[in-house]
């Protein structure tokens, strides 16, 4: 169908028009595409099992899972594409795959049949080949054919132009559930037509078609990732291993970052180089926060200096091509050794993290991890004379004074998203029971902002967080990032070893 998923731009004013002679010449003399099928993705078999679980949850429903579309960065340039995490989880597709694709699970008597609808490679005789800067082969490289994509992910494939007609079939007997995500304008219009809603305009973004059934579907797909399968755990191990390698490279680069100035950017660049070389990218914007910047929880401006005598809080993770990401924080003394005040704060946070990790066991509640860690934080704040009330009162439901210096939670689920399973229900997340196969972070911190007049001068400007990625096992837990030193003594020894090689 003309127009479906057709996001071609009009010829930019700066572009030279194509002559008829050029159009005739450009399509000639190309070697045929290889007929060899690509190797199936390692995640394909696992993705099939995940689709079977979704199918069992929604018998008789037509399930629509978009990959999302390209996003404009500026004018006629797009951001690098990353598919919706639920789409990636159910197809096995990762880096760059596949803008505007839609996975449809069509109900059958025995479950569901999966079809992946996407925009296949256009023939070289078409204008798309040479003139379309978003999809054309000369602009963005060779795109897969229907057969190649099917071989890659082991899912039958069809052209995205076929999807509107498929969606219109049996609408009187088949319920429609659509993952709320960016959809091609025309496909959204078809969904609104089916649901009897007012037609969206081209300016509409997001889902004006969201219904309660869509929300329930999104929650189910989010909760599907709470317990990782063997493939996911293997990918997370590798993401953590590669992230540890990048952290070591950062430590090696600290003296140069100090020398060059604007050292936070230098640190960010070192980590980003490793992330792009090894995997897809960083799993989230790197936090390279030196000095008082470490007291800003989501400091991603990263334009500050690295100064000897201060701390560097580095919160970063490598996202593999499969899109699974680590999420690690280390707080490092820029000169290689902690001052007495820095060590006091650091050791308190380390003790809190130890308590949190010990609480991360099967059968415990997710919230128990935070309770264990924050009890240690509150006790140290009290011993330093900072709490205006007792520890018990601060930790009570009507208290919370300790949160002035650690406002965030201690943990979150981790996987194909840095903050994975974020749409899971409270009873299955914050109040959920930890089970083998879950991966969570444990990341307490203390942040004494430089303008906090309730904090003594010698502590102002100190920010510390320590974060590790913890796999819940049948025996207890496994620290997937244990290769990175955590105690203050071990951090100093590690940095010294790297610098004296």
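Sequence proposed for the structure above (501 residues):
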């Amino acid at each position: 169908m003309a127009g479906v998923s057709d996001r071609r731009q009009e010829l930019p004013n700066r572009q030279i028009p194509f002559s008829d002679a050029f159009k005739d010449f450009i399509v000639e003399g190309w070697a045929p595409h290889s007929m060899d099928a690509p190797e199936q993705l390692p995640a394909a078999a696992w993705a099939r099992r995940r689709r079977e679980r979704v199918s069992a949850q929604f018998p008789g429903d037509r399930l629509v899972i978009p990959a999302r579309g390209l996003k404009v960065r500026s004018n006629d340039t797009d951001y690098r594409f990353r598919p919706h995490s639920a789409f990636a989880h159910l197809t096995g597709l990762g880096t760059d795959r596949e803008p505007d694709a839609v996975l449809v699970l069509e109900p059958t008597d025995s479950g569901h049949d999966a079809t992946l609808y996407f925009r296949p490679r256009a023939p070289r005789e078409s204008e798309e080949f040479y003139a379309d800067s978003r999809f054309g082969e000369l602009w963005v490289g060779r795109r897969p054919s229907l057969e190649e994509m099917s071989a890659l992910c082991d899912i039958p494939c069809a052209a995205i132009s076929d999807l509107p007609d498929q969606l219109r079939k049996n609408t009187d007997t088949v319920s429609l559930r659509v993952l709320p995500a960016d959809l091609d304008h025309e496909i959204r219009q078809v969904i609104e037509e089916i649901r009897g809603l007012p037609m969206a305009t081209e300016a509409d973004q997001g889902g004006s078609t969201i219904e309660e059934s869509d929300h329930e579907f999104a929650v189910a797909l989010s909760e599907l990732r709470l317990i990782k399968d063997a493939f996911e755990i293997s990918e997370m191990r590798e993401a953590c291993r590669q992230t540890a390698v990048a952290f070591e490279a950062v430590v090696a680069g600290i003296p140069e970052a100090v020398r060059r100035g604007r050292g936070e950017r230098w640190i960010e660049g070192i980590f980003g180089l490793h992330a792009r070389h090894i995997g897809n990218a960083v799993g989230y914007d790197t936090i390279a926060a030196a000095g008082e910047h470490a007291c800003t929880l989501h400091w991603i401006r990263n334009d500050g200096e690295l100064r000897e005598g201060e701390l560097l809080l580095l919160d970063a993770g490598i996202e593999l091509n499969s899109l699974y990401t680590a999420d690690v924080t280390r707080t490092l003394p820029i000169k290689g050794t902690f001052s007495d005040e820095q060590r006091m704060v650091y050791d308190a946070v380390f003790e809190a993290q130890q308590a949190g990790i010990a609480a991360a066991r099967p059968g415990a509640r997710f919230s128990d991890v935070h309770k264990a860690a924050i009890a240690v934080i509150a006790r140290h704040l009290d011993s330093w004379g900072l709490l205006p009330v007792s520890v018990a009162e601060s930790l009570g439901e009507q208290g919370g004074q300790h949160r002035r210096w650690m406002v965030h939670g201690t943990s979150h689920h981790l996987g194909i998203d840095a903050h994975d399973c974020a749409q899971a229900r409270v009873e299955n997340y914050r109040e959920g029971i930890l089970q083998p196969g879950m991966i969570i972070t444990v990341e307490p911190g203390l942040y004494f902002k430089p303008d906090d007049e309730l904090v003594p001068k010698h502590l102002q400007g100190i920010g510390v967080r320590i974060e590790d990625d913890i796999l819940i096992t049948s025996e207890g837990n496994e620290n997937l990032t244990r290769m990175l030193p955590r105690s203050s003594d071990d951090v100093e020894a590690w940095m010294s070893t790297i610098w004296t090689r």
